[in-house]
Amino acid sequence: MSQTLKTRLAEDIKTAMRARDSGRLETLRFLQAAIKQREVDERTELGDAEVTSIIEKQVKQRRESIQAFESAGRTESAEKEKSELLILQEYLPQQADSAEIDAAIADAITQAQAEGAQGPALMGKVMGLVKAKLAGRADMSQVSAQVKQKLNP
């Protein structure tokens, strides 16, 4: 039986404690706190799909922070964020390759157009379809840029 992401996270926190890996431990505890906060807010037990969405959000925040720190010349802070980003990415599914992303975008455009979407609604419909297909497996900001490029050549 495969373990859930939450179980794996709890085990990895224990391992990081034993190894006295403070950087990893801090990142994993922060992630666990975000998961527990959402469970308390929604009064429900989160499954792997919801946990993956929280991890995606954390990854997106790290990427934005890295850009901000690098543009401000704060390389030490950017390096810390990069190490946290690598730790978080361990919990996401294997990333989709560019061919798979292109195929998902093409399928979504075809499906959205067949359903009659056009103009700005087409972009929203395509992104909704692609996000469902590639959840946790692709950087949606990059996918969004690719979709815009294909819709507005």
TrEMBL record:
Gene3D superfamilies: 1.10.10.410, Uncharacterised protein YqeY/AIM41 PF09424, N-terminal domain. InterPro entries: Asn/Gln_tRNA_amidoTrase-B-like, GatB_Yqey_C_2, YqeY/Aim41, YqeY/Aim41_N. Signal peptide: none annotated. It comes from the Bacteria. This is GatB/YqeY domain-containing protein. The lineage of its organism: Bacteria, Pseudomonadati, Pseudomonadota, Betaproteobacteria, Burkholderiales.
